[in-house]
Amino acid sequence: MEGHGFDDSSVRLVSAFMAMEPSDSLISHARVCGGGLITEQVQEFIWDHCLSKAAGLYAPYLKNFLKKLIIEVELEHGCVLDNLYELYAHYMTSIKDNSLVQRDAKIRKRISFLFPDGYSQLQSCLHSRVLVFPLQCSLNMLEGDTGCSIWPSSLFLSELILSYPELFSNKSCFEIGSGVGLVGLCLAHVKASKVILSDGDLSTLANMKTNLELNHLNVELEKPERNKNLNMVKCMHLPWESASESQLQDVMPDIVLGADVIYDPVCLPHLVRVIGILLSHKKSYSCRQVASCEGAGSSNKYENGELHYTNQPNFEDLVDVSAVAGTVINNHGSGGDGPKEAPLAYIAGVVRNVETFNHFLSLAYQAKLDIVDLTDSLKPVNLLPYMHSYNQASIRLLRITFNP
Ligand SMILES: C[S@@+](CC[C@H](N)C(=O)[O-])C[C@H]1O[C@@H](n2cnc3c(N)ncnc32)[C@H](O)[C@@H]1O
């Protein structure tokens, strides 16, 4: 923090502030910057690089953070900057009661991916060590059928895409249940050849389009061919229940993605049907090099540090896999001119309810979908080290292929 320069700790503090991380988390970042104390220098940094640049940020959030900051400095008998007292007094008079704040209000966050030194693979597609996406979200997690909030698995898939860009660049990618659209922004960033985002909820879709526009991506609803050269992301209204086979077969993606889509037991049969159709289209493909597919019908087994489900799987198998050290999968993403590989899906999720998750696995098995748990073998780089509210380790990553 010497001379207000940006070292790692100050970048984390600013990133956490812009992502609207909880006040306690901001305070702990501030302490790291000040070597344990929230010094005047740290307060000046917060003023210059956070609060004075926070125009448009959600005022009750700023008020709560200021209150916490002032209390913490006073508790350690430090000197609080006048600017901070004055701004807090302003919020005290302008925001009378937090409980009256509209719960359906939309807020703007900025999600920053911080790239560590020495990741030549990552930096080859980056001009800077920080990649920032502004995103409009809802305060209410349930708005837009849950799709207007950022869920942890989309942070995970975003880290995965940015960590292994070669798996996605030049690939046609289709996301189901896209929510705010962060995964699509990352796919466009690593130059997927085509990005189609979808959601079953219309208000979520409208919010997603706002986010694509905020990030200067062209949104196209129909006829993408006309603007082939533009950095294009297509949005599609796709409720799984009513998605027709022909509608899905037209898409023919190389890669299907889904983040936090396994949670509603009622939707699962429809979700599995959609994934099945998307993965079973008949583009001219070579055989995918997934050795375990050959042994379908035998027992579940570990290969190359991955768990392959060839019998009807359940969650206990998922738990077991965490004991097995994985190796990174590198059998796809060639991007060359050779025969294309069969489509595959990356589905990331937090297992909130074991029964629901087992039900998904069993439906997938019945639909001839092979599932490989990649959680331990394809780990993304931690690009969100400032985000204490997000725990990469809580997410499971499944790779799904169709095995006729
Ligand atoms: C928990 S949110 C996850 C959103 C986003 N993928 C993320 O991780 O931030 C689930 C998403 O799936 C969508 N969804 C839920 N049920 C659906 C259905 N039956 N058909 C299509 N989309 C659905 C919701 O609208 C929402 O956007």
Automatic annotation (TrEMBL):
Extract the coiled-coil ranges from the record.
none
| InterPro entries registered for this protein in UniProt | Methyltransf_16 (IPR019410), SAM-dependent_MTases_sf (IPR029063)
In terms of Pfam families, this protein maps to:
Methyltransf_16 (PF10294)
Q: What is this protein called?
A: FAM86 N-terminal domain-containing protein
